[in-house]
Design brief:
about 400 residues, alpha+beta, 2 domains, 11-stranded mixed β-sheet, 6-stranded mixed β-sheet, 23 strands, binds zinc ion
């Protein structure tokens, strides 16, 4: 479920409503477009209804970690996947509520700002442990006591959500509902505060092409911005826009261009260098041709979020049809679908994508722990899709995806 919040336009201050995964603040008052720099998890604060006489500085903010993403795991002979959306307490105290449930989605949260003058409780749980908890939630459904060979988290969003509370004598009171949370709260809690820093504040970059100075274009959830003046694409890295290598495959009847990360990786542990190796390893029912063993293997991973089942299907079918895909040009087109999955995440999906292609998983899965796949090079490639009823169909390979699935992917 999506979490929505208001952010003031960095140029004119007008409020703009955003979803958690949005990167662009598009202002309808001043027409400004600003990119939200990725400098760690966003920090949200639930709005409090504490008595006014209490004073903002006496609020105590409890830290919750929100994890939203996909988990892929290979255990026994199965490749499992799940969508996880959970909010867990990041402070170790069994007397406090372990989760915020649906509250963050039910109310408008705010990004942390200097007006939040209370005391922020430090995380005592490591972010990786919260990940592990999220994974356990899915393992209980999937494991069936079979051995786990591989697990990866893909496309995750991690944020902090602070719950405002206050002390009334020794009772800790929920500042949103004004209800007691814990009757005998130890004051030790207050020994675990941290100081909010400048780093907690969101930073923005004006969406201007660093090459030609024209206005960049992007949909609000896109990680890649385009300049149709000088035909360049840009992504933010360490607070500045960096040019990104891209290619487009020609499409005559094209309605939409969908982005894929075309990745090559150094693979150790299993012979897997050429396209021919992939055909052999995954037992595809085709005879490997001489040219396949000379063709360097690349993985075609969707550069957009979509439900795990479809994510794997697209990665599998396009990777196995890569001999039909030849990138030709480098023009920015109007109908380019937004990139919502960073290349690092695509790199983490390689083992799951490979497992999805294997026909004899019983023998393959136990080899996974010995396989090391290190992404080496990548290019963003836009593939042409034409409309066929409710579906989009890829011109060269006939791989299809429904518009509905694409739409839902953007709300995940
Ligand atoms: Zn504005
Ligand atoms: Zn430009």
């Amino acid at each position: 479920m999506d979490l929505n919040y208001f952010q003031n336009c960095p140029a004119c201050g007008a409020p703009v409503e955003l979803a958690e995964a949005d990167r662009l603040v598009s202002c309808s008052y001043c027409d400004g477009l600003n990119y939200l720099v990725n400098s760690g998890p966003l920090r949200f604060v639930l709005p409090h209804e504490a008595p006014a006489k209490l004073g903002e500085e006496n609020l105590i903010y409890l830290p919750y970690l929100r994890f939203k993403g996909h988990i892929y795991s290979c255990s026994g002979k199965d490749l499992n996947h799940d969508i996880v959306d959970t909010t867990q307490l990041g402070y170790n105290d069994a007397k406090l509520p372990a989760s915020l449930g649906l509250r963050p989605q039910a109310m408008k949260v705010r990004l942390y700002g200097p007006e939040h003058r209370g005391k922020f409780i430090k995380l005592t749980e490591k972010v990786v442990d919260v990940f592990a908890k999220a994974a356990q939630l899915t393992d209980s459904v999937n494991s069936k006591k079979s051995q786990l060979y591989h697990r990866s988290f893909i496309g995750e969003t991690i944020s902090f959500i602070y719950l405002p509370t206050y002390l009334k004598s020794t009772t800790l009171v929920d500042g949103v509902l004004n209800r007691p949370i814990c009757r005998r709260m130890s004051r030790d809690l207050l020994d675990h505060t941290t100081v909010a820093t400048q780093k907690w504040l969101p930073r923005f970059l004006p969406a201007i092409c660093p090459h030609c100075g024209a206005a960049l274009q992007a949909e609000k959830d896109s990680l890649v911005l385009s300049c149709s003046n000088c035909h360049t694409l840009w992504q933010e890295k360490k607070g500045e826009f960096v040019k990104i290598e891209f290619a487009v495959i020609d499409g005559g009847r094209t309605k939409t261009y969908l982005p894929f990360w075309c990745l090559t990786s150094a693979n150790e542990g299993i012979p897997l260098d050429s396209f021919g190796d992939l055909i052999k390893l995954t037992n595809q029912p085709v005879t490997s041709r001489q040219e396949d063993s000379e063709k360097q293997l690349s993985f075609w991973i969707p550069a957009f979020k979509v439900r795990p089942k479809h994510f794997l299907r697209l990665a599998k079918n396009l990777t196995l049809s890569q001999h039909k895909l030849v990138a030709e040009e480098r023009h920015v087109h109007k109908k380019m679908f937004p990139v919502t999955l960073p290349v690092q995440e695509a790199g983490q999906a390689l083992k799951a994508a490979l497992s999805a292609m294997v026909l004899n998983t019983k023998h393959f899965m136990p080899q996974l722990p010995h396989l090391k796949m290190t992404p080496e090079r990548y290019q963003l490639v836009y593939l042409p899709f034409h409309s066929l009823g409710q579906d989009l169909v890829q011109d060269q390979t006939s791989v299809a995806i429904s518009r509905k699935i694409l739409y839902f992917g953007r709300t995940m």
